[in-house]
Amino acid sequence: MLIARVVGEIVSTHKHPSHEGRSLLLVQPLNLDGSNRGDAVVALDAVGAGIGDRVLLATDGYSAMTSVGKLQAPIDMAVIGFIDTVDLVDGAA
Amino acid sequence: MYLGRVVGSVWATIKDDRLEGQRLLMVQPLTPELQPTGKRLICADWTGAGAGELVYWTRSQEASYAFLPREVPVDSTIVGIVDSINLRRE
After folding, report:
1. Average pLDDT, chain A
2. CATH at residue A8
3. Which of B59, B83, B86 sits opposite A76 (nearest CB)?
4. Are B58 and A74 in contact (CB < 8 Å)?
5. Which domain holds residue A36?
6. b/e map of A48-85 (b: 16 or more CB within 10 Å)?
7. How many domains, in total, are found in chain A?
8. Which of A31, A33, B44, B55 is deepest in the core (most CB within 10 A)?
9. What is the count of structural domains for chain B?
10. Does the ipTM exceed 0.90?
């Protein structure tokens, strides 16, 4: 899983039925220093996240599908939690 | 999933039987600012997307689940057509 920031939303009327009823979020994975970690991705929302939230991003199919309750669906990423704080031991950053 | 734009189509006459009738499209991955990023790839198409269309696609084994109960041996599939993007980076 990755730390990420929700930076946008996608509107899509024609999409796979397993994606209906959930927000499609544009999510930017982050490094520990807050800088961008690669390109932003598209993830289904499992927790009610919105733009600006710092979130936990699942980047594997099984975990993403499980989080939105749709098994055997074409879903490979989902926002599965809100991150409040990250504590590191000294020197780990 | 990832943003992308349909930039072409691929034809293959000799292929796995389970790919029969399956549209294969060339996709350029994009950033949310719609700048190309990374290399182009071939995606199966669930949506009926056309050339130039903005789409999002999924990868890996999950990509083949779009076609269930048909079992189609693909590892990337276009699963939605993007109408609009609301982007607010800080």
Report:
1. 95
2. 2.40.50.220
3. B59
4. yes
5. 2-82
6. ebebebbbbbbbebebbbbbbebeebbbbbbbbeeeee
7. 1
8. B55
9. 1
10. yes
